[in-house]
Amino acid sequence: MFANAFEDLKWRGMVYDHVEGVQQLLDSQKITVYNGFDPTGDSLHVGHMVPLIALARLQRYGHHPIALAGGGTGMIGDPSGKAQERQLLSLEQLAANVESIKGQLAHFLDFEVKSNPARLWNNADWLVPLNLVSFLRDVGKHFTVNYMLAKDSVRTRLEREDGLSFTEFSYMLMQSYDFLYLYDRAGCVLQTGGSDQWGNITAGVELIRRMRGGQAFGMVYPLITKSDGSKFGKTESGSVWLSAERTSPYRFYQFWLNTDDRDVVNYLKYFTFLPKGEVEALAEATAQRPEQREAQRSLARVMTDTVHGPSALARAEQATQALFGGDISSLDAADIADVFAEVPASELPKSQLEGEGLAVVDLLTGTSLVKSKGDARRSISEGGLSINNARIQDPLQMVTINDLLAGQFIVLRKGKKNYHLVRVLS
How confident is the model over 176-181, as a mean pLDDT? Predict the structure, then answer.
């Protein structure tokens, strides 16, 4: 363990910028720190994990974390990093999203520890009741338009054809007021976030200085990018969510397992609590034995276990092995459909498997694996065809209802990697 949280974050490449004095602050006392998250969806995704895990890291060093749900600011929409204005959500929808996300926060933050339990607050509680005239008189007077126009999040949008609505322009004032409110009510002196939040965070620091004569601090983390230039947290099928309903544990595991060698060590630093020595050992393994992908497997295991638990991790690893000829007999229907979602598939009436069943050669000729019955027989005699990952020994073998996986699938394989999924319909 490092001497303080700042040194830990610095080693992990997590400190992008900070207000002067943050290092001394984190080294000298246990402080209250907050990080906001945007509840515009009913689940967080992996892009939210950098600040959340950093907040959890601060908690492990004894600091007092507040996860702030933007139930109020979410009604406005942060223009930072956005090319156009977001679709505005109702207060009811935002409240429902916050409720859905609560459980996901507990994967990272400890709400039960007695010394410094994490707290979840919702800024709708104080922003929604605000009186507009009072807010503009008491808070707005401390912000000049010149100051706000100089912030990157505002200036970038003003350069675009669509411009920036007054609604979004006011977002900085509201986030600054959040910091002031938490400073007053919870003694919070540090706000953290992604580097795109730097302007909003420093505005809050300045508001506290002007209105309370107090000293507050800000620290931001880098926005994660991939070495190949593509956006982190995105796959061909879309965002990678923490919700098992949106992204299955198997897909979640595969996302981390497929990390590029150039990125994997950084991801181990950013996203896991593995100690320095273990990360460095995995970095050496990647450099010396990249084909074994030890770092990727460790990353996938840790992240899946953290977000979905040990049982889901075990199923994800079993499902992964299915693609390499492992046992698939115990996989449920959802896992089979997930694992083989991208392989060629065909449908077969269940009636054809009743009684004596269907000759395996006839089943194969209806797939993409063989060109003809003769080709199927040759491949079987050469030991190159499998059904449910068990080698087909006899070209006269019959396939029956007893061969169904989860009551509805048959998995055919030619060689090591060529699969075909048969969906059996009732």
Answer: 97
Is 119 labeled as catalytic in the residue annotation?
no
User: Is residue 82 annotated as part of the catalytic site, yes or no?
Assistant: yes
What pLDDT is attached to residue 78? 62
Selecting among 234, 297, 378, 423, the annotated active-site residue is 234
Does residue 417 carry a catalytic annotation? Answer: no
Quick: pLDDT tens for 56-103.
Answer: 999 999 999 999 998 888 777 665 554 444 566 777 888 888 888 888
Is 40 known to be catalytic?
yes
In total, the chain counts a number of residues equal to 426
Instruction: Supply the pTM of this predicted model.
Output: 0.85
CB 67 within 8 A of CB 37: yes
Q: Are 377 and 361 in contact (CB under 8 A)?
A: yes
Catalytic one of 8, 38, 78, 196: 196
Residue 133 CB burial class (10 angstroms; 0-12, 13-18, ≥19): exposed
Active site residue 86: yes
Respond yes or no: is residue 175 known to be catalytic. yes
Q: Is 114 marked active-site?
A: no
pLDDT (tens digit per residue) in 202-212: 999 999 999 99
User: What are the structure tokens assigned to 315, written together?
Assistant: 């199923």
Is 293 one of the annotated active-site residues of the chain? no
Tokens representing 365 are 């000729």
**Phi, psi dihedrals of residue 389, rounded to the nearest 5°:** 65, 20
Report the C-alpha gap between 198 and 172 in whole angstroms.
11
User: How much is the pLDDT for 83?
Assistant: 45
Alpha-carbon distance values, 98 to 36, 47, 70, 105, 187 (Å): 12, 17, 8, 10, 24
